[in-house]
Design brief:
The chain is mostly helical. The protein has two domains: about 1-75, no CATH class; about 75-220, no CATH class. The protein contains seven helices and no strands. It is globular and about 60 Å long.
Length: about 220
């Protein structure tokens, strides 16, 4: 039992989060890359997630909706459980980006630094074979750092929802940093004069949501005297 919540409740939540994340991530990918990957092709291609094509922010929205439904059905404290889960979300992102690296998606811009990487010829998603920024590794390492910080904070938080709010803020900032090195977006998905990617825009909304939670969530009253 953690924070007064039975471990079985957290374990049972897992399938809800996985299904919500996959549905949300795939839905946003299909919307974002309809013309490039799906227009004129069989409808069945939409469901072939094993071929790649998931968008993290879509997964965050989908899993969040599934999470809210679950805690409402089970009558669990919304923000307390969210704080328990937040470090694991960051850790999952760290491992997920390794999958992106192996799959050849979410690659970076051309790079001549010593740690640049090359994708092999014939990769299913056809990333460039010239040296590029290893953005997947950048993202993975930053998420590991975020996981460590959140795991440290869980037992030191001042109010319920603080850890989750800081996750949203932290992820939005680190993701915005990594996006500056991404090279896989089509030209029409560059906004605000060309510097902003779709993930930059989503990060702005996520940052605002995180700051809003940290500002608005109730604090326990301090007992005096």
């Amino acid at each position: 039992m953690r924070a007064g919540i039975a471990a079985e409740r957290i374990i049972d939540l897992g399938p809800w989060l996985i299904i919500g994340a996959i549905v949300g991530a795939r839905t946003l990918y299909v919307i974002s890359y309809w013309h490039e990957a799906f227009e004129g092709k069989p409808i069945a291609d939409i469901f072939m997630v094993w071929k790649g094509g998931l968008v993290y922010y879509g997964g965050l929205v989908g899993s969040s909706l599934a999470y809210i439904l679950y805690v409402r059905l089970k009558k669990l404290p919304l923000w307390k459980v969210a704080d328990i889960l937040a470090p694991s979300v960051a850790l999952g992102s760290a491992f997920g980006r390794i999958g992106c690296l192996l799959n050849g998606c979410c690659y970076g811009r051309a790079c001549n630094l010593p740690w640049a990487i090359r994708f092999p010829e014939g990769n299913p998603l056809n990333p460039p074979t010239y040296p590029v920024h290893p953005t997947e590794i950048y993202d993975s390492l930053l998420n590991l750092g975020l996981y460590a910080a959140l795991a440290w904070l869980v037992r030191r938080k001042k109010f319920d929802g603080q850890v989750f709010g800081l996750y949203l803020v932290g992820y939005a900032v680190l993701r915005s940093f990594v996006e500056m090195f991404r090279g896989d977006y089509p030209e029409h998905q560059h906004y605000l004069g060309g510097w902003a990617t779709p993930a930059h825009l989503a990060s702005i909304a996520t940052l605002a949501a995180g700051l809003g939670l940290l500002w608005l969530l109730p604090r326990p009253e301090v007992k005096r005297g």
